[in-house]
């Protein structure tokens, strides 16, 4: 009986896996992560002792992760998409610059029998400075080494609010952390007790974890998974959390302190339409030039890479409205806010509508490619021959030329002939 139950469980598991594999789906896109933590404290005084304390600690990780997840949805509505690709850009800062100094303005000196002998000015003094710098190790290797995209959406609950998806990315920033501690103490009444200037340096290897875990409602019709989340947002002026390595005994008055920590995540993943992978074979049947066929194939291959910038200009009417350099720069800077066209999303959405009519899909893709190409040539023609471009349009033209030389832009597929 137990053997039969075990075989049944194995059969069900294999059926679910096989069903998921038969419906392979790819989600790819960007996950933006930012973790900022700063500690500052400043104070000084002169009430019998001149003292000064400065604390400045900074930890910043800014990462753009270009991720790919591949998997499938089983008949049970549960899916686990494996982490199958990663490219990333990371900025990492971890520094400490803390200083503490104190010096008695005047000091009474005593002999071994605690009899007053004389006074000195200045009196005892102490310095305690700590600095820290971090250097990332193996910067060409991805920090994020694992993760998954999970979807839980039972068929009976396939409505907004009932289904969920979750994204997790995990990894470590490996770094050499070099610290330098400078200390010095003087005792004018008994110089034999002086502790001369000492600089102690040390370098250790440390791992700084990156853990991104987010969840959002899911609808079975969603072709784009996107959102943003504030994970941590802490701001206060409690000095006990701001002093870091500074000896509290050297704080002899009020400090102005600030502790700020903020962790945010934003993401945008596109569901790739499998019919786009069939466009290449259909193009070969069309009566268009080989150069156009190869360019479109290159465009489609590029759009599968989430690191490729997909923004293009498809409307000369909108371009003609740009008169000044400021207007042009604004459109470039805000291209992701509707000022330019996201070619990846345009073709994926068109594919979802036309995937049962491959010939119509191919026709639409050729039409979009023609629009892009015509605008590039029109820029060049009106700039070199007709000289009628506005200053703003010249800026847009120059931006397109730069993007044609940028391997991470879809415009690079339109370079040259």
For this structure, the quaternary state is single chain
Output the helix-strand order: HEEEEEEEEEEEHHEHHEHHH
Measured between the Cα atoms of the first and last residue, the distance is 71 Å
Say how many strands there are. 13
Range of strand content: 35-45%
Radius of gyration: 31 Å
| Biggest sheet features | 9 strands, antiparallel
Total domain units: 2
Number of helices: 8
What is the general shape?
elongated
Overall pLDDT score: 89
Task: Give helix % range.
Answer: 25-40%
* Uncertain residue segments: 1-22
Helix-strand makeup class: alpha+beta
Question: Any overview of this molecule?
Answer:
This protein has 417 residues and is an alpha+beta fold. It has two domains: 247 residues, no CATH class; 141 residues, no CATH class. Helices cover 25% and strands 44% of the residues. The chain contains eight helices and 13 strands. Strands 1, 2, 3, 6, 7, 8, 9, 10 and 11 form a nine-stranded antiparallel sheet that branches. It has a two-stranded antiparallel ribbon with strand order 4-5. The longest helix is centred in the last third of the chain and has 27 residues. The chain is elongated and about 110 Å long. The N terminus is likely disordered.
Q: What are the main properties of this structure?
A:
417 residues; alpha+beta; nine-stranded antiparallel sheet; two-stranded antiparallel ribbon; 8 helices; 13 strands; disordered N terminus
